[in-house]
Design brief:
With about 350 residues, the protein is of the alpha/beta class. It has 10 helices and 18 strands. The mean pLDDT is about 95. Pfam families: IF-2B.
Length: about 350
């Protein structure tokens, strides 16, 4: 996507794969900084710290971490140990485990330079596949949004999203926002309401990337979604997902479930956009999705800009405040109108028809 008129991806490589470069998303929207990881441990750290975030991007970052893990030619138990560490860096996003399993299978039986070459090639292939899948998601989403827009002539289509599922959450284009970008390219007027998404404020990333792209976007408090829907100010809700069970239950950033409930009550369609790599066919229901529990410090503190322009962290609750901080919740399939994938828009009940044999 474009940042101040320049094309940019969230992650890429240099030095023939010896270095992995990525946007440090913990500094956005205040500062755009590129970090360099030259070891698999550093890239795992980036995943854990949410310097890279978003299920599809985490998967590709995990693939590149695996490629870095074989760079000094470990094998046997050491390679298995490294891959296990990478796969466990974030528990909810299934794309990470999916990517590591795929890398492990691809590297099986290879040794030396051939294993290193294959690891880099496979990670690069997965990055390109992510871009292609996201563009396809955008095309299917744009068809859906066009139909909704044509039913509401004379004004922009009003879209509500929660968390960030744009190009920052993928290698490029995004999932939930991919359709928004495609609509813009097709001349379909849209406006996005971006939930702030406490406590990590990923909604600020949504506002930043849409503003960089020159698209109309308004930041709102997390609890404003119901208000907007009650008053007819939202035509459709589109969110991403970190893991989707086989029955269509979908895990996404904490607070998504409440948006789905409000959408049903208000008669607003609620869509999930995600690639097939986010569907975990091994889980029959969303109750089996592991929910990441993050530090309570994320609730007790907040980052922002001081009057002098410096970025700093401010404590908003006493250190001894007890805080519970689940990173995700699960939206039941019956609240989801459809799941937008690179293969089309599917009803949750249709997912099992696509289960790999």
């Amino acid at each position: 996507m474009l940042v101040e008129g320049k094309p940019m991806r969230t992650i890429w490589t240099e030095d023939e794969g010896d270095s992995v470069l990525y946007i440090d998303q913990t500094l956005l929207p205040y500062e755009l900084r590129i970090r360099t990881a030259r070891s698999w441990e550093r890239l795992v750290q980036a995943i854990e710290r949410m310097e890279v975030r978003g299920a599809p991007l985490i998967g590709v970052a995990g693939a590149w971490a695996a490629a870095l893990a074989v760079a000094d030619d470990p094998g046997g138990n050491e390679l298995r140990r490294r891959l296990e560490v990478i796969a466990s860096a974030r528990p909810t996003a299934v794309n990470l485990q999916w990517a590591v399993k795929r890398m492990s299978a691809r590297l099986s039986g290879l040794e030396g330079r051939e294993r290193i070459r294959c690891a880099r090639s496979e990670a690069a292939r997965m990055a390109e596949e992510d871009v292609a899948a996201n563009r396809s998601i955008g095309r299917y989403a744009a068809r859906l949004l066009r139909a909704l827009s044509e039913a509401r002539p004379g004004r922009p289509l009003q879209i509500l999203t929660h968390c960030n599922a744009g190009w920052l959450a993928t290698v490029d284009y995004g999932t939930a926002l991919s359709g928004v970008y495609q609509c813009s390219a097709d001349g379909i007027p849209v406006h996005v309401w971006a939930d702030e998404t406490r406590p990590r404020l990923q909604g600020l990333l949504t506002e930043w990337e849409l503003r960089m792209a020159g698209l109309p976007v308004t930041l709102v408090a997390d609890n404003a979604g119901g208000y907007l829907m009650q008053r007819g100010l939202v035509d459709v809700v589109i969110v991403g997902a970190d893991r989707i069970a086989a029955n269509g239950d979908a895990a996404n950033k904490i607070g998504t479930y409440l948006k789905a409930l409000a959408a049903r009550e208000s008669g607003v369609p609620f869509y999930v956009a995600a690639p097939f790599s986010t569907i975990d066919f091994s889980l029959s229901r969303g109750s089996g999705i592991p929910i990441e529990k993050r530090s309570g410090g994320e609730l007790r503190e907040i980052r922002g800009v001081r009057p002098d322009g410096s970025v700093s962290t401010l404590r908003i609750a006493p250190q001894q405040t007890d805080a519970f901080n689940p990173g995700f919740d699960v939206t039941p399939a019956e609240l989801i109108t459809g799941i937008i994938t690179e293969k089309g828009v599917l009803r949750p009940s249709e997912l099992l028809e696509w289960r790999p044999q």
